[in-house]
Amino acid sequence: MTTAPPPATRRDSTAEPVAPAAGRLSWWRQAAALWAFGLREYRIWQSYRANQALWIANLLVTTLLFFLLGKTIGGQAAGLLGPAYGTNYMSFVVVGVTVNVFINTNLVDPYIRIQRSYFNGTMDLFLLSPMSIYTPLLGLMTKSILDDYPRLFFTFGFGMVFFGATFNFAPWPLALMFTALFLAAGFGLGMLSASSFYLLDIKKGTEPVQFVVQGILATLLAGTYYPITVLPRPLQWVACLIPHTYAFDALRRLLDPGARADAPVLPVQFALHGLSPVAVDGLALLVFTVVLLPLGVVAYGRGIERARRNGTLTRWQ
Amino acid sequence: MDVVRLDRVGKTYAGAEVSLRGTKLEWKGPALWARNAVRGLRLTSVNVPPVRALHDVSFALAPGEIFGLVGPNGSGKTTLIKLIAGLIRPTTGSGMVAGVPLTHPAAIRRSVSYVSTTGWMGLEWPLTAEENVRFFAALCGMDGALAGARAAEALRAVGLWEDRDKYPSQLSNGMRQRVILARALLFHTPLVLLDEPTVGLDPANARAVIDLIRGPLRERGQTIVLSDHQSAEIERVADRIAVLRAGELARLGTPGALRAELADVMVIEAHTEEMDPPRAPAPAVVLATEYVDRPGALGLRAWRVHTWKSPDALQQVLDWLTQPTGRVVRLAEHAPSLRDVLTLPPEVIAARRAGAAASALAGSAPPEGAAVEGAAVEEAAS
Q1: Considering B258, B289, B323, which residue would you say is the last residue of a domain?
Q2: What DSSP element (H or E) covers A270?
Q3: Which residue, of B210, B238, B258, is where some domain finishes?
Q4: With a threshold of 0.95, does the pTM exceed it?
Q5: ipTM, interface predicted TM-score of the complex
């Protein structure tokens, strides 16, 4: 049924140009929105002072735990770590723990943030602003980035000051590049994980991408706490299917004193014996990034579009 | 140019399965992933009938118009508003919002301010009222100085400037809703969508919100779509009103035109004490009745009886209600309001007008929100 609207004669049509209507938000406006997210998260983070103290204590305890494990291993560390990763178990494990925190943030956090935002009703707000659909995802992650990334300094600091870890920081630009690649690949996985919220309707409970990749493969096989050479050969090949394994290998070779860049450890490094192990790691991380990042972007976009079609984009209908 | 033009728009949701949570049959973990992946790949479908939320809805909104959407819960108001906002894609039909087709939700978002008071209302609880408003301004790309000025202006307009430093947990429901309305005031978008802005508010706060719509929002010349299930609020402010029923556009017109449809109907309100519902059938003059139990002792009821206009209608209703025991303590007669337009479905009126009252009432379902021929509408006393 259609009826003609009454003539609008009573009001002045003085609507001024509209900020959201002024066109697609430029990249600096998107960056400003991200900054607003960051400020908000910082406000929240710094309001929990007791939590900050516990956060540091937790790091200390974690590092202490591995120090005690290292003491237990004692002189066997060199034999366990092999020629590739030097002789200091504390250095080995500090890299493992730090990288694991990073990847955990990038891989696990997107799903959790989307889930929380969906259930507390702020997703409406974000999706109604003229931001890109990816900006809120990144913005919501600033909380974890604020929380988790500084752990790098604390973990390294505790390891070095209290527990005898030593590092070779000379190749830091290369280490930084590997870290960036690893984080990008991890974020690709994180977006895949977040997309399952809408694509697979996994609204609660265990999310499959993070459960399989982070919960099983990374925890057991990637070599966070022990070199993957202790695993049966077939499992070592399985370990090569996730980016974590290459990041651990490369960063340990670069940062751990006494580590060697030319001794292959991973099955893929043996297979590609013409290349140096670090080059293999770099190549693998590049491939993971090039594949996973666009895949994550597409999957997340498809997820949002599917939810828009099904009417499940927001919790409160 | 119309700000909104919808042409036979419909929306059908996939059927929602009955929850198996807590049972041995509950889908969990890998079983859930596999099932949803199979469904995502469309190898199987949900064996539950789909829900038709909207069907064949068409209308156009002129610039500056205030358009009310009313209807009972589940009639499709929120779906329609979210569809206009670009949060939901229509299943059928087409439409334009501010000159942008519904198929381009990203572009629509730049022309629409949307305020929903359902759920947790999108408020950031760790931020103060002012920070909430400014945060939204930042998300929409407004620079800091302008955001500060606009936030102050908006908070003053909603009467919250003095409380700007309070957190949502320190504000009443009505104040929280005004914070959300302040967000809508930040931008002078061509279209403002307000989904049940007065829900859960006491009459004074509801009136304040409506005054806000009648005042600052209307002054700007923005087109406003306002939904509510309380028709009285919308009647005060809307230029035109659409009545949704079961996802369909049942009526559309100005409040006066809608009320005029009941020009030959009158409403009798009665309060009774210690009185049972009448056992005798209602007299022919009665179109429909409803009653709610009033707080207090048993038998305290508030009746609302729709009758044809007739000099003796009041007496007939009084005779019908009156029992050997109990008493009528209040009796009033007045013209129908928009609420009565919602209560009386067009088919009931038409059938009665055609002189087929008895057969129509026997063959059709009772109107929503009302009870025909003396059946009770049980409501929690409040």
Answers
A1: B258
A2: helix A267-271
A3: B258
A4: no
A5: 0.72
Q: What is the CATH number of the domain that holds B370?
A: 3.30.70
- Pure H helices in B110-264: 129-139, 144-157, 173-186, 203-212, 218-219, 231-237, 255-260
Q: How many whole angstroms separate alpha carbon B1 and alpha carbon B65?
A: 12
Whether B382 maps to a domain, the answer reads: no
Which distant-in-sequence residues (6+ apart) come within 8 Å of A209 by Cβ?
A107, A111, A189, A192, A193, A196
Cβ(B2)–Cβ(B61) below 8 Å:
yes
Q: Which domain holds residue B58?
A: 4-258
Closest CA to A32 of A156, A138, A154, A182: A138
Quick: pLDDT tens for B94-147: 999 998 999 888 888 888 888 876 655 678 888 899 999 998 888 888 888 888
CA distance B91 to B78: 15
Q: What are A187-211's pLDDT values in tens digits?
A: 999 999 999 888 888 887 788 898 9
Query: In this structure, are B172 and B189 located in the same domain?
Result: yes
Q: Give contacts of B135 with chain A, Cβ < 8 Å.
A: 36, 40
Residue B65 in contact with partner chain A when CB distance is under 8 A:
yes
Note whether B140 and B236 are same-domain residues: yes
Give the CATH number of the domain where residue B28 resides: 3.40.50.300
Name the closest residue on chain B to residue A312, using Cα atoms. B88
Compute CA B282 distance to the chain's CA centroid, rounded to the nearest angstrom: 31
How far apart, in whole angstroms, are the C-alpha atoms of residue A131 and residue A142?
A: 16
> Tokens standing for B274?
């210690």
CB-based contact B78 A3, cutoff 8 Å: no
Within a 13 Å sphere around the CA of B229, how many CA atoms are in the beta-carbon half?
Answer: 16
Query: Do A127 and B87 touch, CB atoms closer than 8 A?
Result: yes
- The backbone torsions φ and ψ at residue B11, rounded to the nearest 5 degrees and listed phi first, read -140, 125
Strands B51-61 and B223-228: unpaired
Q: Is the dihedral of CA B152, B156, B161, B166 positive or negative?
A: negative
Q: Do A130 and B141 touch (CB under 8 A)?
A: yes
| Contact residues, chain A, for B140 at CB < 8 Å | 19-20, 129-131
